Amino acid sequence: MLKKQDLDVFHPTYYDPYFLKYLQQKPFVLTVYDMIHELYPDYFPPNDPTKIQKKELIEQAEAIIAISESTKSDIIKFTNVEPDRISVVYLGNPFEYLGQLHQIENNFEHPVLEKPYILFVGNRTGYKNFIFFIKSVAKLLKKDENLRVYCAGGGPFTQPELKILNELNIFSKVRFVKTNDLLMKHLYENARVFIFPSLYEGFGLPILEAFSCGCPALLSNSSSLSEVGADAACYFDPNDPESLIQSIETVLSDDHYREKLIRRGFERLKLFSWEKTAQGTKKVYDNLSYQ
């Protein structure tokens, strides 16, 4: 299709510029998910081409989609792109269509979970701030012998992570779970609280996952997270252990506050859908100069 020029506009899914040599005069739209490589270069290998490739595509794109106002601000901060070339189009709920899988879900064998538990989701490296998180909650795990932590996704614990868990004497209270969508939904639904301690996110899809499952969300007060969560989440300083501990204790002990967060989460979720994402993306296409 690219070689034949059988297209009106091209929209790559990431930053590989392989397509440029085929486009000729055809326009392309670029979605920028975050500026994490620019903000935290030390978390990536020196030869990682992402930053250079992204810059090249940003400079040449006919239009740019940012997945949050926070990401749009970061693009402007790190490039010379004009703000009016950037449109903000939010993402949708990853679990939006899981409700259509009733038969599969009915046959899904749920694992036995040790409750109550705190849920951590996804990658645990670098800016995801897992080490800060686990060192902070260690105090709570020691105080409450029944409390557990489940880490969903992100791969099995590494040797350095296992070493830290042993040093903190909480190895037996922290579990890694390999997940799929249905198990992930089950984990959110049964968690006392979901914690997102990341130092930076371009959007933060797990926030919408938690909202859709009636799981109260504790989010770091960084980057796009408050933009997505608004007043439906509780916030903490991702560099202050006491801030996180106080937030967790509030949600665990105050059922009224916990229920309020859950209700607000369901309301907040109504603002995000893949239909709205598609409509916003089409609007960007419609406004291109080739029309």
Major sheet characteristics: 6 strands, parallel
Number of strands: 9
Topology order in helix (H) and strand (E) letters: HEHHEHEHEHEHEHEHEHEHHH
Share of helical residues: 40-55%
Q: What is the CATH class of the largest domain?
A: Alpha Beta
Cα(first) to Cα(last) distance is: 20 Å
Q: In what range is the share of β-strand residues?
A: 5-15%
CATH architecture of the largest domain: 3-Layer(aba) Sandwich
What does this structure look like?
The protein has about 290 residues and is of the alpha/beta class. It folds into 2 domains: about 15-90 and about 275-285, Glycogen Phosphorylase B (Rossmann fold, 3-Layer(aba) Sandwich); about 100-270, Glycogen Phosphorylase B (Rossmann fold, 3-Layer(aba) Sandwich). Helices cover about 40% and strands about 10% of the residues. The protein has 13 helices and 9 strands. The protein has helices at about 20-25, 35-40, 50-60, 70-80, 100-105, 130-145, 160-165, 180-190, 205-210, 225-230, 240-255, 255-270, 275-285; strands at about 30, 65, 85-90, 115-120, 150, 175, 195, 215-220, 235. The strands form 2 sheets. A 6-stranded parallel sheet has the order 6-5-4-7-8-9, with helices on both faces. A 3-stranded parallel sheet has the order 1-2-3, with helices on both faces. Strand 2 (about 65), helix 4 (about 70-80) and strand 3 (about 85-90) form a beta-alpha-beta unit. Helix 6 packs across helix 11 (about 240-255). It is globular. The chain starts with 19 loop residues before the first helix and ends in a 5-residue tail after the last helix. The mean pLDDT is about 95.
